Amino acid sequence: MAAKSILIEAPVKRHAFLIENGSNSILIDPGARHHADLLINAITKDMAMKDIRYIILQSNDYLNITSIDALMKAGFEGQIICNETGIPYIEEALNHNIITIASLDYKLKIGEAVDLTFIPAPFLPFHECFITYDHHHQTLYSSHLFSQDIQASDDLIKMINAFHEFVLPGADYVRQNVKKLSAYNIKRIYPRLGKIISGLNVQAVIEDALTYDFYNTTQVINHDKDHKTSYNYEMICNHMLKKLTSLFHRYEIASVFIGSNIALALSTDITIDKTTLIGYKLWNYFFNLIYEKKGVTWLAVLEPTVKKYQELYGLHEPSIYTTDIYLQHAKINALNVSKIELASKVKELESEISETTDKMLRDSTTDLYNEHFMANYLEKEFQDKISPDSENVLMLFNIDNLVDINKRYGVQEGDETIRSLTYVLNNIKMEKTMLFKQHGPGIFAYTPKQQIKDIQEHVIKCRNLIQESELFIEPIHVSVSLALLSEIDDRFEPHVRVSSFIELVLQRMQYAKMLGHSQVVDHTSEERDFVDGVVLIVDEDETYQNMMIKIFERIQFKVIIKKDIYEAYETLKTEPVSMIISEINLSKLDGFQFKHMVNQTKDLKVIPFIIISHHKNVEVVRRANQLDVDLILQKPIFPEELTGYIKRMQQKWRKL
Predict the structure, then answer these.
(1) Which long-range contacts (CB under 8 A, 24 or more apart) does 260-268 make?
(2) What is the tens place of the pLDDT at every residue in 100-109?
């Protein structure tokens, strides 16, 4: 088996890659329709198109999928491997010939000759992208990652950086994906555009990608038709904020802008939310404010990034760098401030803000760190390798009769009950356990590196001791839900694992509430039978059915598939269906006739009804409105649109 690159667009050095393996050959990233003739000619010089068993689509963009129809007409009869989100884009052309990297468990092995691993690379540049590692040839097919703008320079690293800056969303996305490569022994890199990378250059480009800092210049710098340059100063300031967050605490940064003309949004990344300033006035004000509140030190941190914008893109540096900053440097030099004195000043600064910062992170009722702090803490915790010999467990303790206590004795006594629960948990918790306050009324307990049996026994003991305690104004009932980190896919990024970890323990608490008081729900309980809803899908397309099953399983929905409306209508009589999704075009009666049947029964008419079809026109909308159809979606659907609608409707379903 040999890997061969096929140049399909010379001006930008765009390549497709062919792994030759007889009748089990593999084609990677075939390109667009206008590349197809050249590609087919290159392939068929040495082999028949039917010898290609798989085509791997590492991204689902136009320049990578529109050649497939031509390849099929030329004799390709194999399967397409893509990310799950690629299915809606290509399902009509490929029918049942699609398989996903998830269904392959991110690996493809063909005898002793082929051993590939698929590595998710989200947002490089699209959220569904992945890259492929060939274990036998120690080759990485890196798609957009390490691709090059060959017009930018003769230097390999500069060409890569120029391409990354123009196409990829930011350095953070590059770094978090490049870090994954440390698990592989890479001797060659085959990017989608540019030169093949080999030898010492492999390690050099990987190391540079881990340290090079950029913010996507296509978003912050614009050139009009008269070649005049304008800058998005707000986004450039956001880049400066990102640089600060790598060195200083987010709440310390936020304190700089309190009461100023710049309001920050404290989401995952600190960004400017609102400001009355624009253009160069915003640029100067931003740095003057930082200098006023934090002095020379913070300006010095930002200076290399500012210089980069100045040298590469012609952006004028803030006026503070040509005036006060040099005077301050002169003062520092004159006073001969030593490193020890500087460290002392930094320590004093940290001491001044620590109390304020700590208060912002703690719950005022219990003095526990809040759920937001817990999420950040767990994200850092999960960046380290987790031992397979023990379990990391998240528990949620909830007072079942807290609402009754609030009604009977008042909210203040309810708060005192939560404080007493915190006190009891602090006294009986396992070693290394940390308590956090939920945004709601519960108390989280995170316990790392414990045996499952020990944790289960401890939880029962805790529940019983709490309910027997005399600290409370009346006996309380406590339910506990548990989630194990091992239940969460370790291929996810740390922040995704954290959100999934928390979501799982919250779902189990919801199930515990349904069961009654004093429940303990963990991975051994019957919560797998608990679902947020039951969706009835009426469609004859098996590929579409499989995709819908995967979408709904992620959000804990039971899926019932029926191929005609008679079977579907009978299902409504026996199953507690909370939503109906029907294709219009069915071999018997159509989806609109099904909705008409449903409308004849008062109890069924209120069930949310979604019509899905390849054709959405005025006539379809008119008929849907006449029948009170809740939503019309056109195939291929966007999973996010459907799941977003479901979340908005969940409250309604629970009232049915």
Answers:
(1) 260/289, 261/285, 262/286, 262/289, 268/495
(2) 898 898 999 9
